[in-house]
Amino acid sequence: MPVGEGTVRLRPPVNTLDPRVVGWWRTRWLLLTAGPVAVLAVLGAFLESARFWLLLCAAVLAVVGAGCAGLLPLWWFRTHRWEVTDEAVYVRTGALRQEWRIAPMSRIQTVDTVRGPLEQFCRLATVTVTTASSKGAVRIEGLDHELAAELAERLTRITQDTPGDAT
Taking every annotated instance into account, which residue ranges of this chain make up the domain YdbS-like PH (predicted)? Predict the structure, then answer.
């Protein structure tokens, strides 16, 4: 098929995520780190023979976790992109190992929005586009919750107007 109008091709998506996603990712990272740090600290308080090593591990993990929470979300924000056209949904994720996904409108089966408690607090949402692909759903995390609702409505409208793929 010649490259032309209406052709789906791999290209960089143009939209960035909502800037609040950085705070959401940081909070998730800190919560993920806080559990093991707390366990190590409590064990260190009660196990005198291993106190030094347990508290040292807790301190190192806390420093590494705080450093990752400070730097990684900024890096992720710079690399994650998304775009929706009349032909497809484009998503690029990953910092070291980048993954580019294209979901042609004719292959979309369902469109969902999800807002966990932390996402609700940050006024963010995730749009999940389920396709007929064995790779699984395409997810766009870190969207403003109102934009996510509009996007889900738009995708539903476009896919209803798009004939199914016969292949």
Answer: 78-154
- d(CA 81, CA 48) in angstroms, rounded, equals 49
pLDDT band at 4, cuts 50/70/90? very low
Of 80, 74, 127, 126, the closest CA to residue 99 belongs to: 80
Three-state SS letters, the chain? CCCCCCCCCCCCCCECCCCCHHHHHHHHHHHHHHHHHHHHHHHHHHCHHHHHHHHHHHHHHHHHHHHHHHHHHHHHHHHCEEEECCCEEEEEECCCCCEEEEEEHHHEEEEEEECCHHHHHHCEEEEEEEECCCCCCEEEEEEEHHHHHHHHHHHHHHHHHCCCCCC
Question: Comparing C-alpha atoms, which of 114, 146, 150 is closest to residue 130?
Answer: 114
